[in-house]
Write a structure and sequence with these properties.
Elements (H helix, E strand, L loop, with lengths): L2 H12 L19 E3 L10 H5 L5 E2 L4 E3 L8 H5 L5 E3 L14 E3 L12 H7 L3 E7 L5 H8 L12 E3 L8 E5 L4 H13 L5 E5 H6 L12 H6 L3 E3 L6 H12 L2
Parallel strand pairs: 6-7, 6-8, 8-9, 9-10
Antiparallel strand pairs: 1-4, 2-3, 3-5
Bound molecules: iron/sulfur cluster (SF4) (2 copies).
One iron/sulfur cluster binds next to helix 3.
Length: 250
């Protein structure tokens, strides 16, 4: 069989592996954007607050911080009033940290609002340098997936680069440990202007499961301030893709 025929045969057998529309895709069974019902809690009930491993939930009124949530689903499971439900909505990132807090009421996608100058500069091509700052590597695996045949972010101009000197955006994962603070700063300083920071995962946004660990030094995040916060533990590649497409204005 010639190479051309073999290629056609493989194509026929495997079909189209790429996700045609990254905006429309919804992974089955995904635990995404939570929604909190308006029915009142039973008096004295704090089952969800107690069950949450990352203190993401506050009571009276009930609110859930996507920036701390690890999407374990325990709060929905233990609530006797079934007030909390996880939807399959993947678009959860926001440019404002406060917008990551979900309140009672209908599901609402957090907004991403970036300056027109950013969209003009990066709307057609976005080069990203990833720095892992003390996390578990699951975020990195999902970021890697963005470049695979399924998600194929390159078709939208999104590419990972090896050097911060070639990068427009620094994608930070992990809770930012003391051991990594100099490396993160060095990478940031090496990037040309204009540049921006993207905080990916509960660890980067809030410290996540490691929020009280003594080995963290998160001053860099406070000083630079992420342009976009991407929730998840780890975030689904579609969540990251949607956030980056929003930054680009695509
Ligand atoms: S799904 Fe999120 S808010 Fe609910 S218990 Fe798990 S970490 Fe906490
Ligand atoms: S956010 Fe979750 S998946 Fe990402 S590094 Fe932290 S613990 Fe790992």
């Amino acid at each position: 069989m010639t190479f051309k025929l073999l290629t056609l045969r493989v194509r026929q057998d495997q079909g189209e592996q790429f996700i045609k529309d990254l905006r429309a895709a919804r992974p089955a069974g995904f635990r995404g954007l939570p929604v909190i019902d308006t029915t009142p809690c039973a008096t004295g009930c704090d089952a969800c607050v107690t069950a949450c491993p990352t203190a993401a939930i506050t009571a009276a009124p009930l609110a859930l911080d996507l920036g701390a949530c690890v999407f374990c689903g325990e709060c929905a499971r233990v609530c006797p009033a079934h007030k909390i439900a996880m939807t399959t909505e993947v678009a959860m990132a926001s440019s404002a940290r406060a917008e990551l807090v979900v309140h009672e009421g209908p599901a609402r996608r957090p907004p991403i609002d970036v300056a027109a100058a950013i969209r003009k500069a990066f709307g057609r091509s976005l080069k990203l340098r990833q720095v892992s700052a003390g996390g578990c590597n699951a975020c990195e695996l999902e970021l890697n997936a963005l470049a695979n045949v399924n998600f194929d972010a390159q078709r939208h101009g999104i590419e990972w680069v090896a050097s911060p000197r070639h990068a427009d955006g620094l994608v930070l994962t992990g809770p930012l440990t003391k051991n990594m603070q100099d490396a993160v700063q060095l990478a940031w300083d090496a990037m040309p202007d204009p540049k921006f920071l993207v905080a990916v995962g509960a660890c980067a946004i809030s410290g996540g499961l490691y929020r009280d660990a003594p080995g963290l030094a998160r001053d860099f995040l406070a000083k630079v301030g992420p342009l976009v916060f991407v929730p998840g533990c780890p975030p689904h590649p579609l969540t990251v893709a949607q956030a980056l497409l929003d930054v680009m204005g695509r």
